[in-house]
Design brief:
globular; 8-stranded mixed beta sheet; 260 residues; two-stranded antiparallel sheet; alpha/beta
């Protein structure tokens, strides 16, 4: 056997190690631990990410009695809003696997009595009671190519629910004094604001999210209401360097992240 050759026994150990490492890595990525709840995500196309955390942390819900989360995915935003309020939360998800996982995440949380996950298409959803707050992290990347993974495509692309359909549905389900908040790519913000006017929804607050100093905004959060008034515009820088979060982002999310 050449000096640099690997023996059969060593090869088996290497294979076992790589297999074990792969299993451990998948287990580590299958859930995300927050201060007061855990989000399991192995069955969801879209995992826990900054977009959802921003939406859950920035949306005002302290006085809300009923909250609707459109496209809940893992249930992250619904859980975040339940933590900061006493509201009853209804979370809608079209994908059966994600809806089941969101239901399980809610059932394991301290607010399981207040969160109801429904596997349904928002376009077919009806409620006899209106909502004080509606939130959504809707499909995006509308100009990009679809993903080979059909589940991930549905979660990421605006091929099903359009912004117009989302806003029309929100307008029908929101109380007269209610608020709708969503997070979208910054480059479609003006288009969404213009579309919202057709549903009599007007921007009240707008947050432009920058991911690096001096860079252009990547995401925009907008809160809409039925009232016409001047929109309050803000900016938030999430990172000052790679994996070095800004003080503003830390302050916004401090109630949730274990380590920040």
């Amino acid at each position: 056997m050449p000096n640099n050759a690997v023996s059969p026994v060593a090869s088996r150990y290497i294979v076992l190690f790589l297999t074990f490492y792969s299993i451990i890595s998948k287990m580590a990525n299958s859930y995300f631990q927050f201060k007061q709840f855990t989000v399991w995500q192995g069955q969801c196309a879209m995992k826990v990410g900054t977009d959802g955390v921003l939406l859950g942390a920035w949306t005002p819900v302290e006085t809300a009695r009923r909250i609707l989360d459109v496209g809940t995915g893992t249930g992250l935003v619904a859980l975040m809003l339940a933590q900061r309020s006493r509201a009853a939360v209804v979370a809608l998800e079209i994908d059966p696997d994600a809806a089941l996982q969101a239901s399980e995440n809610a059932a394991r949380s301290p607010w399981k009595e207040r969160i109801k996950v429904l596997q349904t298409d928002f376009r077919h959803y009806h409620s006899e009671q209106l909502f004080d707050v509606i939130v959504s992290n809707p499909p995006y990347f509308i100009a990009s190519l679809p993903c080979p993974d059909g589940q991930r495509t549905a979660a990421r692309h605006n091929g099903g629910l359009t912004y117009s359909e989302l806003l029309q549905g929100v307008s029908a389900l929101l109380t007269p004094e209610g608020f709708f908040t969503l997070i979208i790519p910054a480059d479609v913000a003006e288009r969404v604001i213009e579309t919202a006017r057709g549903s009599l929804l007007y921007p009240l607050r707008q947050l432009s999210v920058l991911t690096k100093p001096g860079g252009p905004p990547k995401r925009t959060l907008i809160t809409f209401s039925f009232r016409k008034q001047e929109c309050q515009s803000e900016e938030l820088l999430t990172e000052i360097a790679r994996h070095q979060y800004s003080e503003a982002y830390k302050a916004l999310t401090k109630e949730y992240y274990l380590k920040m």
